[in-house]
Design brief:
GO molecular function, one term: mRNA binding
Radius of gyration: 63 Å
Structural class: mainly alpha
Keywords: Coiled coil
Distance between the termini: 139 Å
Order of helices and strands: HHHHHH
GO cellular component, one term: ribonucleoprotein complex
Largest sheet: none
Oligomer: single chain
GO biological process, one term: intracellular mRNA localization
Shape: rod-shaped
Number of strands: 0
InterPro entries: Bfr1
């Protein structure tokens, strides 16, 4: 009986020990499980925070892209507005210049055209006619002086006088022809007039007549152009007035 009782006690002690070990294991497991739960909770919290940060970063990125797009649109609008203003200023300036030009044409429409050309030709004609008159006057004086010299000489031989008179007349004609072919120099200003008129200047007295004829032809041409232009004055006046009104 004692032996059995000892065995039973021993078994009880062993069972108790095993129970204690089991309890320790359970406690240890529970402790580890609690720590694991804490870690899981911590991981979940970190995960939520990371997701929140990711969402915030994404939101910030989207907002930043929108801001960038808005800035690009703003700069583009500024550039377009600047270009439009430059274009409008250029067009306004061109219109003002065009209007000024039309108003100037309208002011000058009653002014006879080719005034300067005709005035230049008149001055050249007056100059050439003056040269002709001076040349004729000089020739007349020479002939008068020659005649006085001949009349002042006393000749006894009538035949000799006739021959001498004939020779002198021939000499005067040859001298007169030679004088007409005599070259002369023109003033530089007068030469410029001829260049402007597009006519070759005379280089001798016998070329003056042909030069005067060419000047008259030029004068007739400019007068004809002037008369044709005057005929259309009212039509051009109305056209210019309408163009100015449109501007």
């Amino acid at each position: 009986m004692d032996s059995i009782r000892e065995k039973i006690n021993k078994l009880r002690n062993e069972k108790k020990m095993e129970r204690n070990k089991l309890k320790e294991l359970q406690n240890s497991y529970q402790e580890k499980n609690n720590k694991l739960n804490e870690l899981n909770n911590l991981r979940d919290n970190y995960s939520k925070k990371m997701n929140h940060y990711f969402m915030e970063r994404r939101s910030i990125t989207v907002e930043m892209e929108e801001k960038k797009q808005q800035y690009r649109s703003f700069k583009l609008n500024q550039l377009q507005a600047k270009q439009q203003k430059i274009k409008e200023d250029r067009e306004r300036k061109n219109l003002e210049l065009e209007k000024q030009s039309l108003e100037k044409k309208l002011e000058d429409i009653d002014v006879l055209p080719y005034r300067e050309e005709l005035a230049l030709i008149e001055n050249m004609l007056a100059y050439l006619k003056k040269l002709q008159e001076e040349f004729k006057l000089e020739e007349s004086k020479k002939q008068q002086n020659a005649a006085k010299k001949i009349n002042g000489e006393v000749e006894t031989n009538e035949n000799k006088d006739d021959n001498k008179t004939k020779n002198e007349n021939n000499n005067k004609k040859a001298k007169s022809k030679k004088d007409k072919q005599k070259t002369f120099k023109l003033d530089m200003n007068i030469l410029c007039y001829f260049v402007t008129a597009g006519i070759n200047p005379p280089v001798s007295f016998d070329e003056i007549d042909s030069c005067i004829q060419k000047l008259h032809e030029k004068k007739d041409m400019y007068e004809q152009k002037r008369d044709e232009s005057v005929k259309n004055v009212e039509t051009r006046r109305e056209d210019l007035t309408n163009k100015i009104k449109v501007l």
